Amino acid sequence: MIKSMTGFGQTIASSDEANTVIEVKSLNSKFLDLTLRLPKKFSEKESEVRTMVTDLIERGKVSVSIDYQPKSGAEVAQRYDETLFSAHYAELKKLADKVMGGYDNLFQLALDAPGVKQSNTTETLDPSEWEKLKKLLSEAIAQCNNFRETEGKALGMKLADYIATINKNLEQVEAIDSGRIEKIRIKLKENIASLFGKEGLDENRLEQEIVYYIEKLDIQEERVRLATHLSYFVKVMNEQNANGKKLGFIAQEIGREINTIGSKANDAAMQKFVVEMKDELEKAKEQVLNVL
Length: 292
Prior knowledge:
This protein is of the alpha+beta class. The protein has helices spanning 46-57, 82-98, 106-111, 127-196, 203-215, 220-237, 244-265, 268-288; strands at residues 7-14, 18-27, 32-37, 60-70, 78-80, 117-119. The protein contains 8 helices and 6 strands. The strands form 2 sheets. Strands 1-2-4-3 form a 4-stranded mixed sheet. Strands 5-6 form a two-stranded antiparallel ribbon. The longest helix has 70 residues, at 127-196. The protein is elongated and about 110 Å long.
């Protein structure tokens, strides 16, 4: 079953204490690249959040954003250390006077100095709050995975079409190849005869040389291997746990066989179908990058 690495999940909840919005987004990546944005109140749970996401998302560039806004009854009061503020402000004025600078921004700079702003209450995490948040996070991750599965179905249909088109072109190559060798044999004999004439030619030796040359153009093994790789690609796509990396490796092998057929073809009609196969394979490779 094909599963895309592109996904999105969101859960929104409102309680007496706060409004909560959780978003889980994922894009394609070779490994799990996880970015978290947690409220300070839940920072102690970062490792648990990472574990939850790692166990369920598997792979991709994933970002998890948790927005937790306390309601008016639960607002955190703010107070300021006036002594510390005055000291910072005085020092800033002295520096401004030395360089004959203005005082316009000194108030804000002193207000933003470390330790000036203080909270009257400490944000302690209630176990019940964490359980609620964990449930919401699980729902958001599940939505993201469902999104990935839906995208994966569309992705699988595209890949199946590309592989089917390569198969059709391979059939055309096989049809041309059935008479290609004999044409090459006749053409070689005619060319040699026209250059050197028939007198003095050793027919047996000539036939041996032609066979040796034709063996270099034989694509029977490449055709068989290509057909096998295409069949295996489809098989892996339909497995319960489709592996995007494995599909990428198979696509590389498919490309290798197509290139070899192209280099050995020595036939204009066959080259046309080789180009078509290469074009479809490039499309497939681009889509495989987004397969989980």
